[in-house]
Structure formats: structure tokens, C-alpha cells
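Lab notebook, bench 4. Still working through the backlog of constructs that have no structural model yet. Next entry is a single chain of 111 residues. Request: give me the C-alpha cells for it.
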Amino acid sequence: MIQDIVLNNITDAPVQLETPAFEVPKNETLNISSNSAISLGTHKTAVLYIFNQILADQDLDAEISSKLNYEVGLEKGSINLGTTQKSIPIKVSDDTKALISGLLESGLFEE
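Model written out:
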């Protein structure tokens, strides 16, 4: 499964979560975890948005699009699972806020 997460309409580099292949036995339910990473090189605008929302004590506005890749026997394909609008609450410690504030004031994010 692949999920693209667009924060605050920043469409140039969505955060992408990818779940490795898994098998679901008949009549069973599985809890599956996804992994992702964002970096300043590819997601600078999204990182700035996250940092500014943290400092303002505001939730993150996100649009999550999901696609399920499948393989059943010899059949392979993908199913678009649609898009969901989500407000993601984000809370951090005062120490983390101070760190983020210092990073923003350092000029690291300036062009």
C-alpha cells in the first residue's frame, strides 16, 4: 500500500508512506505499519509548515490518498482507495518548541 500525504496543499513533494507486501489469511485481520522519511532536501516547504504549526499550537491540515497494490494468484494491480481530508493534532514539549524556534531563527531554512 502506498499513501501520499499532502500537507497544507503543498503538492510539489507529498510525504509518501509505503507499506511492505503482506499476506492476509482468510478470516483474519492484520495490523500493518508504514514507514516514511522526510528531509529538508525534498520536503523543505512541508517541514517549514510543520514547524510553524507546532510553534502556533495548530493542527496539521492534510490530504491522504491511498492506493492498494495487490497480487492474487497471477493477477497484479492497484486499487485507488480514495482521498481523505484530515486535521492531524500535533503536540510537542516546550523543549522541542525551543529547539524548533532556534532552528527557524538560525537562517537554516532561508534560500
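Notes after review: The mean pLDDT is 87. The chain is about 25% helix and 35% strand. Flag for follow-up if needed.
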